[in-house]
Amino acid sequence: MHSTRDIHSFDTAGRGMPLMSAVSLSLLLLSASFAAASLSPAAAQSASPAQQATAVSPDVLKQREEELEATREQQRKAAELQQKLKADIAAIGQDRSKLNQQLIDIATEVRSVETRIGETEADLRPLDSREQQVRASLDSRRTEIVEVLAALQRAGRRTPPALLVRPEDALQSLRTAMLLGSVVPELRGRAEKLAADLGELVNVRKRIATKRDALAQDRDRLKDDSVRLAALVEERQRKQSAVEKDMEAEGARAINLSRQVDGLQGLITKMEQDLKSAAKAAATASLQGAPAAPNGKPNLGALKDPARLSPAIAFASAKGLFAFPANGRKIRDFGGSDGAGGVEKGISLATRAGAQVTTPCDGWVVYAGPFRSYGQLLILNAGGGYHVLIAGMERISVNIGQFVLTGEPVATMGSTSQVASILATTASQPVLYVEFRKDGTPIDSGPWWAASEGEKVRG
Q1: What pTM did the predictor assign?
Q2: Is 50 exceeded by the pLDDT of residue 21?
Q3: Computed from CA positions of residues 441, 447, 448, 453, in that sequence, does the dihedral angle turn out positive or negative?
Q4: What DSSP string runs through 253-319?
Q5: What share of the chain is helix, strand, coil (3-state, %, to 5)?
Q6: Helix or strand (DSSP H, E) at 325
Q7: Residue 216: left if φ>0, alpha if ψ -120 to 50, beta else—which one?
Q8: What percent of the chain has pLDDT over 70?
Q9: Could you read off the pLDDT of 380-406 as tens digits, one per residue?
Q10: Fewest CB atoms less than 10 Å from the CB: which of 33, 221, 396, 406?
Q11: Is CATH 3.30.300.20 the right assignment for the domain spanning 246-455?
């Protein structure tokens, strides 16, 4: 950008020759950048080995050194994280409440980061689309761009390649020419339109770069949080297996029993009658009864006790308080068509690949494992005759008989749909199926889900 004094000196020195040189230099640099960026792979391959070595050696070596250093830094951070995890777990010791609270806190953080990643990706889609539109428009008008620049400097230049790799250069050339007063009236409109389009492209690219930086940071954070969560889940299950010595045998027996029933209600009944750990959980649920709700309202403060061994809130009085078990978009609702002539008995959420699954409520695990067309299935006895069924995960991280808290991590989604009834229509995206039952009958879960983030219960 030149000052008024600079403009005056250009106009008086050589009757416009310095002005022509300035714009010519900008156009020459722009053309050179186009030509360099559009070199085809075939042309690059046709160069001799000596030419290739000469061309790439300084920059490529520097890039490789930077990549190697970045890899070393990642390894160092991973080692530090592992050491911190060991120290954190050692500090928890046998304190079950601390472990539960850590699990809920990290799971909440993971889901929060997943939400931000989803929002950023959604923001990027229209920006990427707009960038492609503007670039395509400018690329189709490359001849006009060169003509305008050539007219501005009163000298022709050969047409640059189609690819606009440095729109900043073309924009600067136009702005410089207009600033120096070399735009004749009939060209000003065309020059201003080109400058506006190039300016939009530059701004869109800057916004994309900013969001991609934020996305990369969130993905790194999600990776670290997932490692931390996995270590805590492993510690939780290790402690659980120490208490329940026959947990592995119970799991195997549950799978065998599941093959003897036809439907979900039969599975629940079979588990709670014939499987020791599930029967114990069901009996405990019945004995505990429904927690009292002062003045008819649930006592949310009871959720703050991470050491509890029974539901903090009666399921029936928790309407409008539950969070979905995973971040996702509802694609099927209770009572809608199931695509096979029947009606949906639950809801289905399309999630991210590898999404974290948490419990919407307190409850005892009465089944955890594969079941028929549901993929991996988790069933919770929430007390008061209520059961929560969650299906479609790739991996479940809790065991039968275990008591889990609201917001506690219990499973992880895969990369594709696992539920057979949904697989035919949504095969490329993981789908979580959630069903509520009261005394064996599927019920509409809608009244239990929170309308907004602030209304969801937290452990």
Answers
A1: 0.68
A2: no
A3: positive
A4: HHHHHHTT-SSHHHHHHHHHHH-HHHHHHHHHHHHH-PPP-GGGS--GGGGG-TT-SS-SS-GGG-T
A5: 60, 15, 30
A6: none
A7: alpha
A8: 67
A9: 999 888 999 999 999 999 988 889 999
A10: 221
A11: no
pLDDT at 91 over 90: no
The per-residue pLDDT for range 192-206, each reduced to its tens digit, is 777 788 888 888 989
Task: Return the number of other C-beta atoms located less than 10 Å from residue 308's C-beta.
Answer: 18
pLDDT tens readout for residues 217-244 = 999 999 888 888 888 888 888 887 766 6
| 3 state DSSP class of 207 | helix
- Smallest Cα–Cα separation from 380: which of 405, 344, 355? 405
Lowest mean pLDDT among 130-139, 191-200, 279-288: 279-288
Do residues 389 and 344 lie in contact, with contact meaning Cβ atoms separated by under 8 Å? no
For the ranges 60-69, 74-83, 368-377, the lowest mean pLDDT is seen at 74-83
The domain ranges of the chain are 4-240, 246-455
12-to-180, 254, 438 alpha-carbon distances in Å: 12, 93, 90
Dist CA 301 CA 137 (whole Å):
59
Minimum mean pLDDT range among 243-252, 267-276, 368-377, 431-440: 243-252
Rounded CA gap, 137 and 201, in Å? 11
Nearest to 403 by CA among 295, 284, 287: 284
So what's the pLDDT on residue 335?
87
Tokens of 271: 């588990």
CA 64 to chain centre: 29
Contact 348, 433 (CB under 8 A): yes
Distance (Å, whole) CA 37 – CA 59: 15
Closest CA to 346 of 385, 314, 377, 315: 377
Task: Return all residues near 198 (Cβ < 8 A) that are at least 6 apart.
Answer: 138, 167, 170, 171, 174
For 391, how many CA atoms within 13 A lie in the half-sphere containing its CB? 23
**CA separation for the pair 27, 21 (Å, rounded):** 10
Nearest CA to 292 out of 313, 306, 308, 310 is that of 313
Give the orientation angle of helix 185-243 with respect to helix 247-258, to 10 degrees: 110
